[in-house]
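Appendix B. One record, verbatim.
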Amino acid sequence: MVRAKGFSVEKVLDKRITAEGKIEYLLKWKGYTDEDNTWEPEENCNCPQLIAKFEEDRQKPSKNRTNQKPKIEEIEKPRGYDRGLAIKRICGATDCTGDILFLIEWEDCEELDLIPALIVNEKDPETVIAFYEQRCPLSKKAKDRMKPLSDEYANKAGVAKFAW
């Protein structure tokens, strides 16, 4: 137990690193409820013995971690094209891993999957083209520019207009 400015640290509960790279500890204060626990910067913590004990305990393997078995249903569950389902639509795309991934919605399935674009391009190129055409601002502008030409062509040729 450490006393600082009228407060006593009872226990170090957790540790985190801020976006600025500073270490903070979650402290339990003696005589206060868990609702009063606070995150304190490492330089403000005057309890080196408690921090050392916390770090030592953290290094020991927990019984819960070593004996915990993975969930079988998650391991054996098919993903992506292994489901044998058709693509309903591409909901979005990301390059968070360095490669382009598509977020895929499948027919008759509520779960979505992130699938590498290379695979989707090969297996469902028309779906990929439709996805890009929906989001391409040039596509809309081109259609808008073609509309007067198609009206003019239809009037001159005496044929029905084609719809976009």
